[in-house]
Amino acid sequence: MREEVENTIKNTKTGKATVPDMISTEMLQVLEVCFIDYTKAFDRVRHEEIITILQQLNIDGKDLRIIKNIYWEQKAAVRVEEKTSNFQNIKRGVRQGCVLSPDLFSLYSEMIMRQIEEMEGLKIGGHNINNIRYADDTVLAAD
């Protein structure tokens, strides 16, 4: 089978598909991929970094104050049977069930991905694609 595929690719004209309406030979290339599993991703986002990112995106005034009020100065205690621990400040994580949480995480991961934007990825139609993301699922791609 491998030999047949190799022969078909070798005998294909540049930029043409092997059969009508199929994948262009431009798509037939070696690709390295890395699937990233963000373990407890939503729990690890630091509040200070969220605020910094929002400021870099020129989000300020009332919107920034609302987000700060939701996330800043949170406290939690742990209760085991009849005993309760001292309250501790929560400095990271986005709130479970909060409608802002997926968007805040997406902004956080977007800023990380912008740092790798120039790295070589898969070339499709003249575009460099080096990452594919949805919520906390990420695939890095390299040629």
Automatic annotation (TrEMBL):
<dbReference type="InterPro" id="IPR043502">
    <property type="entry name" value="DNA/RNA_pol_sf"/>
</dbReference>
<dbReference type="InterPro" id="IPR000477">
    <property type="entry name" value="RT_dom"/>
</dbReference>
<protein>
    <submittedName>
        <fullName>Retrovirus-related Pol polyprotein LINE-1</fullName>
    </submittedName>
</protein>
<dbReference type="Pfam" id="PF00078">
    <property type="entry name" value="RVT_1"/>
</dbReference>
<feature type="domain" description="Reverse transcriptase">
    <location>
        <begin position="1"/>
        <end position="143"/>
    </location>
</feature>
